Amino acid sequence: MSHHVEHSQQNNALVECVVDDNLEFWARQHDRETEEAFKIREVWKKNDADNRAADLQENEIIQAQIHRTLVKSQNIETQRKFEVDNFKAQRDTDQAHQE
Fold first, then answer.
1. What is the pTM of this model?
2. To pair with 76 at 20 to 30 A between CA atoms, which of 3, 25, 33, 58?
3. What is the largest CA-CA distance in the chain?
4. Planar angle of CA 63, 65, 71, nearest 5 degrees
5. Residues of 62-90 as b/e, b for ≥16 C-beta within 10 angstroms?
């Protein structure tokens, strides 16, 4: 039994419609992914800015603590020098009286 197939013509309009729909779908998909990436990047930028601000604030606090410690150390050194000078002056006075 032999089958005879008549020539069929492809439906170019349907193929074009399917291709166009597919391209449109991928364009919308790309737009959504791009939009989501931009949203994520904005969140990261904000987080980075917040972290930098927190780091700067922490650095200022540490610098202030270092400054206070340095001033305190200088005050202690000045007080010690004053006490040593007084001790030497008293010693010299005591030695002068003994002679």
1. 0.48
2. 58
3. 149
4. 100
5. eeeeeeeeeeeeeeeeeeeeeeeeeeeee
Residue 22 corresponds to which tokens in the numbers above?
């597919």
DSSP codes of every residue in the chain? -----------HHHHHHHHHHHHHHHHHHHHHHHHHHHHHHHHHHHHHHHHHHHHHHHHHHHHHHHHHHHHHHHHHHHHHHHHHHHHHHHHHHHHHHH-
pLDDT higher at 97 or 78: 78
pLDDT in tens, 9-52: 778 888 898 999 999 998 888 888 898 999 999 999 999 999 99
Alpha-carbon distance of 94 to 77, in angstroms, equals 25
Confidence at residue 1, expressed as pLDDT on a 0 to 100 scale: 57
* Residues above pLDDT 70, as percent of the chain: 92
Give the Cα separation of 46 and 59 in Å (integer).
20
